[in-house]
Amino acid sequence: MASGSTTISASVDQISGSAPATVTLPQAAGVNITTWHVDTNRSGVNSNEQTLTPSNVTPASFGKLFSYAVDGYVYGSPLIMSNVKINGATHNVVYVATEHDSVYAFDADNYGTGAPLWQVSLLQTGETPITDGPIQPYEGVTSTPVIDPSTNTLYVVSAQTSASTGGTFRLNALDITTGAQKFGAPVTLNVSVPATNSASVNGVQTLDTSCIQRAALLLANGNIYMGFGGCHSGWLVAYNASTLQQVGVFNSSTKLNGEGTYASAGGVWMGGGGPVADSQGNIYITTGNGPWDGQTAFADSVLKFGPTPVAGANGTMQPIDYFTPSIYQYMDCDDADLASGGLLLIPGTTTLVAGGKTGTMYLVNSTNMGHESANDAGAIQEQVWGAGLAGGNTYPDSCQDSTGNNTASITSYEIFGTSAYFNNYTYLGVTPTSSNAPGGIRQFEYSSTLTPFDDTSEFQQQGARGTSPFISANGTGYGIVWMIDQGNPLQNSNQATPTSATLRAYDAANFPTEIYNSNANPGDAPGYGIKFSSPVVANGKVYISTGHDLTTAANPQGEIDVYGLK
Q1: DSSP bridge partners of 212
Q2: What is the pairing mode between strands 413-414 and 425-432?
Q3: Is 383 within 8 Å of 442 (Cβ atoms)?
Q4: Contact 353, 360 (CB under 8 A)
Q5: Separation CA 474–CA 469 (nearest Å)
Q6: What is the Cα–Cα distance from 476 to 566, expressed in whole angstroms?
Q7: CB count, 10 Å around CB of 138?
Q8: Residue range 289-302: mean pLDDT, rounded
Q9: Are 556 and 550 in contact (CB under 8 A)?
Q10: pTM of the predicted model, to two decimals?
Q11: From CA 286, how far away is CA 342, in angstroms rounded?
Q12: Backbone angles phi, psi at 271, to 5 degrees
């Protein structure tokens, strides 16, 4: 980081009405956060944070600086690019995409008038975002986009509908300096596979907008990987990042059908996290509940794909390795998705960390994933998140389906987040299913396997959908564990009245010592919580996505809350 500093004054926050904030900014090369949870391992750690430390992140010295208004909720995470030249001036830029199918570029440090550096709509003439989907009142962009810094391109998947075409998905490629489409974008996703399941027509199943593109985008091997779920079958689709041509597609159950309340078959949604890529370019995903046979049906599994999709416009990708918990039949009939949580590939290792609605974390060797085996002998480890905590002891549960009575041991916790990794520890948040079970984040020491340590013991609301922590640090020191406590988030499953989210920070070296809580100062309160959201930390600022209005508003706004040193 270069020496020197600049002092700026941020204008009055037009959303919260807070007083102007004077901020001293370091003149720096800057940090880029171009993908969900920082990297393709999904480590969730920015180890180049040189401004925020455990000693200066306190209620007295740190808080909300301003909030940007956007035209819809932001379900994905903000992305950051430093030192971008826009309209003749250089800025650190925060990029966000909304459920109203808009993409914004804002100055990441200086509120100014609150106007974006640029804003584009992904809608074409006669189109609107989808209005009859599970995300209300609009379903447009739901996943976290991805930026290719080598070409200054932001890739984002939009969902839209019109009277003439019905619902469609499009892959957009935007110039990060102007918002203009590149590479012949946008392209409509026309994806299909041979199939005989109940969603097929004349031997073909087609991806449609009954699905949700929830999983964060992945840029790897020169391709954009997109995961879909919430419909009959899960999908993983790959498009070339330069030509925007389809190069591969995987459908999680082309023959067998789901059953039960949701009757799904292996959705790829990953709690808002994204597919993982290792250093060889292999791709990993988790799938949700549904049928499994290890040949044509791959629900409730961790799947590995090779770095080169099958050639051809409709090339079919197939897993080259997998892990499936031995209780997969129970997971199917009780809607106990493994894909409710995301994946972490612990940096410098071949260890994958997955977890889902049973509250169990599975450690899997990416070079020999273990398939399905009695008592999960193929896994490195099964670690119950709440072991030793209130509500953390396992208890038997069962469900009935066409195969008979299926049983499993579960806990009063569900995993809807992705682990973050720092200094030989992983950190993971959960959602309690019992009012007696505290939620929050728990720390696990990693040494080939996970050993549970302390937790933050907040009594989070049931249905809050957990949290994916984010860690800022300067090298291996000054670590801060950040989380968004969503409270009662918008569209909470328990239909409780939504509440403001809470930004919390903990000293990683003295975990779980809390050093900051946005409830400490009234002016620091963010907007309404949004499920699965994760904070982003870069260049001395913390960015979180929240809702400004309730879903009952005619055109509810979202907001991006920006925190830093006062």
Answers
A1: 229
A2: antiparallel
A3: no
A4: no
A5: 17
A6: 25
A7: 22
A8: 95
A9: yes
A10: 0.94
A11: 7
A12: 55, 30
